[in-house]
TrEMBL record:
One cellular component term from this protein's GO annotations in UniProt: apical plasma membrane
Organism of derivation: Anser brachyrhynchus
Keywords on record: Cell membrane, Ion transport, Membrane, Sodium, Sodium transport, Transmembrane, Transmembrane helix, Transport
Protein name: Solute carrier family 5 member 12
PANTHER family listed in its UniProt record: SODIUM-COUPLED MONOCARBOXYLATE TRANSPORTER, SODIUM-COUPLED MONOCARBOXYLATE TRANSPORTER 2
Localization, UniProt: Cell membrane
């Protein structure tokens, strides 16, 4: 029980529900609009990748909205509030990631003429694993995609719903189910075009919500100068920490290097990203979309960081979490919003719409990506002669299936702790090994099938070993270094409870690895998986014999012929080269 008297914070009122409901109504309407507009275009290509006629503008908005989810809206300000503004260094990570994605990975996927990133992987694996079991190797990565997308979607749906429920009184499971239904609705009706344009609208709502909170919070805190002074006095502006200790939670190196690996797994080889990029009318449009998306990432990051600083300035002498007014740090942002907008009905509803805009966009992206991969890599392989009409209906059915599955998985997210760390940890654990394997196939043409499978298994083992260990044995405060929070100006409930003596509890036994390997910064999980995969793959290939590349590989699109001396990418390259020539001709015919 709290020793302090909690201030009265109003719950949602009718106007808040009206504003929030308008968000869902507009999103559903976009799905209906594209269902009517595109009713004569009944091909699965139109449904899944928008007929590859999308321009760079909406794709850029969609990419930003999809990956700046409610995890960012609620989690990042809380991180800054507790640990300081070093989170802003992610702008360097984002820059590195977008450059690598646009210049290294995107050309391979776009020129291949595929819909699913795992179609490329399948051609690569036919060579890598032909001496073992081809289908099982492809299924391994396919299952990892499911694990990554569904678990992450569970966090995105459940965590903000829980935080908003406990602070605003907004119904927990009502918001979870509503999110799933609305996303599934407009994904199923409108396909990728509906997802992209809805994301663009949600991006606007997200930035509008942030700006509204920033302006109101800054005014109540005494102006931007006062916010800056409070942040400086509270050590929230100590951004550049060049300590190379990998056990430290946030330093310059963990954020820039570890963050780059984590987000490269999200962008470089992630189905949601690549599917949007290859829906563009040309490779040039896709690259421009990625670089414009970088600007959007910077804007949302800066808004979130400054919201954290404003929130600290407001609560510097009476921290709601330490005082017991809220039960988890992830509830700080919604608590702050309900506090500063208590006299302005409808505005809290705008913030909730802001948070759920991120949720809707991410869930929709996951549903669309999972449906696309399943259709391209499973359904079409088993039933190659499906009619376009039947293919479209199957694609819509898959959207409904994955919408229900992602929504039902939300309950599992309650076991994973803080939403930012949980989200990035899962992406690191699953995305790192995938990034390592694709890197082997694209950058190192000397790796053989033994190196590939050995590297993949090593990367998965290392990443999950460190990640699961960190969940079971959290790092000690000496490594996470949370900053000081005060309750100096909080109103005491009574003095008796403060004098109550609590019997000391014995410290739980921690294994030797708990303060070393398991205390590794969560941002390094992806780097461990990627580098473990790549290094092991190279070492095994060195020991067992490199692959040699022939100058003229024998390959056709429909009937590939594989030689034991050929690296998979070298076999696939003739088709990529042919497609790149066609793409260049298309680029000349397509203007901005």
């Amino acid at each position: 029980m709290s020793n302090f008297i909690a201030p009265e914070i109003k719950k949602f009122v009718a106007w808040d529900y009206v504003v929030f409901a308008l968000l869902f109504l507009v999103c559903a309407s976009i799905g209906v609009f594209f269902a009517i507009k595109e009713r004569k275009k009944k091909t699965s290509k139109e449904f899944l990748v928008g007929g590859k006629q999308m321009s760079y503008g909406p794709i850029a908005f969609s990419l930003t909205s999809s990956f700046m989810s409610a995890v960012t809206v609620l989690g990042t300000p809380s991180e800054v509030y507790r640990y300081g503004a070093s989170f802003v260094l992610f702008f360097l990570s984002y820059t590195i990631v977008i450059i690598f994605t646009a210049e290294l990975f995107l050309p391979v996927f776009y020129r291949s003429g595929i819909t699913s990133t795992y179609e490329v992987s399948k051609y690569i694996y036919i060579f890598f694993f032909k001496c073992i079991i081809t289908d099982d190797s492809h299924t391994l990565l396919f299952h990892e995609l499911f694990l990554l997308q569904i678990l992450y979607t569970g966090i995105v749906v459940y965590a903000p719903s829980l935080a908003l429920n406990q602070v605003t009184g907004f119904d927990l499971w009502g918001s979870v189910v509503a999110t799933g239904i609305v996303c599934t609705f407009y994904c199923t009706l409108g396909g990728l075009k509906a997802v992209v344009w809805t994301d663009a609208f949600q991006m606007v709502v997200m930035v509008l919500g942030f700006v509204t909170v920033l302006i109101r919070g800054t005014i109540l805190s005494g102006g931007s100068t006062k916010v800056w002074e409070d942040a400086y006095e509270g050590s929230r502006l100590s951004i550049f920490d060049f300590d190379v200790d990998p056990l430290r939670r946030h330093t310059f190196w963990t954020i820039v290097v570890g963050g780059a690996f984590t987000w490269l797994g999200l962008y470089g080889v992630n189905q949601s990203t690549i599917q949007r990029c290859i829906s563009c009318k040309s490779e040039k449009h896709a690259k421009v979309a990625l670089y414009l998306n970088l600007l959007g990432l910077w804007i949302v990051l800066v808004c979130a960081v400054f919201c954290g600083l404003v929130m600290y300035s407001h609560y510097k002498n009476c921290d709601p979490w330490t005082a017991g007014f809220i039960s988890a740090p992830d509830q700080l942002m919604p608590y702050f919003v309900m506090d500063i907008f208590s006299s302005m009905p409808g505005v809290p509803g705008l913030f909730v719409a802001c948070a759920f805009s991120g949720t809707l966009s991410t869930v929709a992206a996951s549903i669309n990506a999972l449906a696309t991969v399943t259709f391209e890599d499973l359904v079409k392989q088993c039933f190659p002669n499906l009619s376009e009409k039947r293919s479209t209906w199957i694609s819509k059915g898959l959207c409904i299936l994955y919408g229900a599955l992602c929504t039902s998985m939300a309950a599992a997210a309650s076991l994973l702790g803080g939403i930012v760390q949980a989200a990035l940890s899962i992406h690191g654990m699953c995305g790192g090994p995938m990034l390592g394997l694709f890197t082997l196939g694209i950058v190192f043409p000397c790796v053989n099938w033994k190196g590939a499978i050995g590297g993949l298994l090593t990367g998965i083992t290392l990443a999950f070993w460190a990640g699961i260990g960190s969940f079971v044995y959290p790092a000690p405060p000496t490594k996470t270094l949370p900053l000081e929070l005060s309750t100096l100006n909080c109103t005491l409930a009574n003095t008796t409870s403060l004098l109550t003596t609590v019997a000391p509890t014995a410290a739980a036994d921690r294994p030797l690895l708990a303060d070393t390997w398991y205390s590794l910064s969560y941002l390094y999980f992806s780097a461990i998986g990627c580098l473990g995969c790549a290094i092991t793959g190279l070492l095994i290939s060195f020991v067992t014999g490199w692959c040699f590349i022939k100058t003229k590989p024998c390959y056709t699109r429909t009937h590939p012929t594989w030689s034991s001396k050929l690296h998979p990418l070298s076999v696939f390259m003739p088709y990529l080269w042919e497609q790149s020539q066609n793409t260049q001709l298309e680029d000349k015919n397509n203007s901005f």
